[in-house]
Amino acid sequence: MFDYKLLAALAAVIEQAGFERAAQALGLSQSAVSQRIKLLEARVGQPVLLRGAPPQPTELGQRLLNHVQQVRLLERDLQGQVPELDENRLPERLRIALNADSLLTWWTAAVAPFCIANRVLIDHVLEDQDVALKRMRAGEVAACVCAVERPLAGARSLFLGAMRYRALASPAFIDRYLAGKAGPQALLQAPAIVFGPDDQLQHRYLASLGLTGAFAHHLCPSSEGFVRLMENDMGWGLVPELQVQNELRSGALRDVSSGQPIDVPLYWHHWRNGGELLAELTGYLSRSAGRWLIQAGG
Fold first, then answer.
1. Which InterPro entries does the UniProt entry name for this protein (predicted)?
2. Which of 36, 80, 178, 202 sits CB 3.0–4.6 Å from 9 for a disulfide?
3. Nearest Cα to 236, choosing from 252, 256, 216, 222?
4. Are 223 and 107 a contacting pair, CB within 8 Å?
């Protein structure tokens, strides 16, 4: 039988990205948290953490974290069924990984009514849509939005829709780098803007135009900053159409070429045994996300 105080310490260290903040979250001393991790490792007979900065779970630690996530959600169901356990219950917290572009555009409007009606608090973990599933695999989150269809063992995935990205730049940037240039080859010579090391959208767009090879680019890990750089003539980039409706209408941003936009599919991944709350949120998203995301054949 697991000692859930020990598992809670493991979850806190990973979720808070360190022992000090984990101790603050649990109301314990840092030494006490460390002792609980050591006791957990002694009981399972192997390490559950790789003690780096930040600490990372081992393979066993990941399995234990996944178990903790599901137990928390199942406990919430039990509290709702047994009134004696439900007194003074705080709002439920869900840790969900998703990409910054979704958070900035459709996500908030899609989930706000559900969270308000069900007293749910969300810890948002930002991660690129191509790699957000690694957070769930590591046991750090209960669910995630990502571009990968195949679910993890013990989980399910649901297609929510696709976000349309367009290759845009300011008129001044286009005049300086692209106007009068023959073909899309000029894009390789013009500075681009890339969200981060895991962002491959610009690479995919260039490949769709038959262009390969290295290209100069800025790194900007901020959805708002990404557009600000473009508006100030610093580069071209792939931006969600949902994010720049005003800029497109005003002409502040324009398409850099006649290439097709890129539609990035988004999938909702959640644990099969995640309890009623996660199942209800999944059903709600399946009904609401289509108001903002492109559906099959759209």
1. ArgP (IPR017685), LTTR (IPR050176), LysR_HTH_N (IPR000847), LysR_subst-bd (IPR005119), WH-like_DNA-bd_sf (IPR036388), WH_DNA-bd_sf (IPR036390)
2. 36
3. 256
4. no
CATH at residue 65: 1.10.10.10
Q: How far apart are CA 68 and CA 124, in angstroms?
A: 18
140 falls within a domain: no
How many domains does one find in the chain?
Answer: 2
Burial class (CB in 10 A: 0-12, 13-18, 19+), 42: exposed
- Pick from 166, 115, 162: which is nearest to 290 by CA? 162
Q: What is the pLDDT of residues 207-257, one digit of tens each?
A: 988 888 889 999 999 999 999 999 999 999 999 999 999 999 999 999 998
CATH number of the domain bearing residue 169: 3.40.190.10
Domain of residue 39: give its range: 1-90
Q: For 85, which DSSP code?
A: G
Handedness of CA 41, 46, 52, 53 (dihedral sign): negative
The owner of tokens 């240039």 is: 181
